[in-house]
Design goal:
337 residues, alpha+beta, six-stranded antiparallel barrel, six-stranded antiparallel β-barrel
Length: 337
């Protein structure tokens, strides 16, 4: 009888084994197909799970009335990062996280010239976001915007880096350099939120909606990290001021050949009483260099007008009436202007 059991069971075992093998192969094929077809979704889901808990919805009440925006957790001890225009005219904001936790946050410092601001929460906050480097972004790379557009907390949109190196004029009259352009949908309330790469690292602070299908973000890079750290320590960013305005202008062929470039900054205005006027700079001068750094745009000068330039003697080389002229300017703090 045992022989009958053994001989009768063998085909059933083989069939069961074969069926199991087919199911396993089908499952592996399905998993591989899912992975190949849905890698984009998997990346976005990973970013949402990683970053959203650290993104807050801000409710702001200030001299200009009520407003809203987004913020992200910078440090475990409660520092938050947002856009300066989100908390303009306000001393406090109410931050709500995706887990429902509410906390009051004090505005520690604003820098309208970079459109960045830092707050400090009075209570516990989720883990901080991981900061990335916008300098490593490539055009076409996946980015994910996380924030609270139109009051819809915990919203996620995805797109690509459309362009790099854009310039964003601010209300303060300066220009934010190296701005990231993305087609990830941004709406009012997204400002101050996170622009993340596919690994969940924050590479930008969503700051503006420039039009349908066009969003901009202030980059997280070496420069902005320094500005953020300064805001955390001192509550403000000190900048130098020279007092000239102008635009890019072509150089005469002989001069271009001599200095190895084709353009400089033609001075259109010298502010009365400014360091530039005291240094002897004149309207019509073409600035070639400041402190040994090549100059051909107003933005190039702006980059040099940082805290350590305040009170320093800077050599300015200009082309004037067919000759190279050197003058010495001593920038002063912008708030003194």
């Amino acid at each position: 009888m045992s022989d009958d059991v053994v001989s009768g069971g063998a085909p059933e075992d083989a069939a069961a084994h074969e069926a199991a093998a087919e199911q396993e192969a089908a499952a592996e094929h399905e998993a591989a197909e899912h992975e190949a077809l849905d890698a984009y979704s998997a990346a976005v889901v990973h970013v949402a799970r990683t970053v959203l808990p650290s993104v807050a919805s801000l409710r702001v009440r200030g001299r200009r009335g009520q407003g809203a925006g987004s913020a992200s957790v910078l440090t475990a001890d409660g520092f938050l990062l947002t856009s300066a225009h989100v908390v303009e005219g306000a001393d406090q904001a109410e931050a709500t996280f995706t887990d429902g936790a509410d906390v009051t946050a004090d505005v520690i410092g604003r820098d309208p010239l970079s459109d960045l601001a830092v707050l400090r929460a009075r209570g516990a906050v989720p883990p901080p976001v991981t900061l990335g480097d916008a300098g490593r972004l490539k055009v076409g790379q996946l980015v994910v915007a996380l924030g609270n557009p139109l009051g819809l907390a915990g919203s996620v949109t995805a797109g690509i880096v459309s362009a790099l190196g854009r310039s964003l004029p601010t209300k303060a009259g300066r220009v934010v350099d190296e701005v990231i352009q993305t087609d990830a949908a941004l709406n009012p309330g997204n400002s101050g939120g996170v622009l993340a790469d596919s690994r969940g690292r924050m590479v930008g602070v969503n700051t503006a909606v420039a039009g349908v299908g066009l969003g901009l973000a202030v980059p997280i890079n070496e420069t902005t990290r320094g500005l953020i750290a300064t805001l955390m320590r001192h509550g403000r960013v000190r900048r130098a001021w020279l007092g000239i305005a102008g635009g890019q202008a072509p150089l005469p062929p002989a001069l271009a050949a001599k200095v190895g470039r084709r353009s400089g900054l033609r001075v259109a205005q010298v502010v009365e009483g400014s360091p530039a006027e005291r240094a002897g700079l004149r309207r019509g001068d073409v600035v070639l260099s400041v402190d040994g750094q090549r100059i051909d745009t107003s933005t190039a000068i702006q980059r040099l007008m940082v805290e350590h330039a305040i009170g320093r003697r800077l050599e300015v080389t200009v082309w004037r009436n067919g000759a190279l002229v050197d003058v010495v300017a001593v920038p002063r703090e912008l708030t003194d202007a």
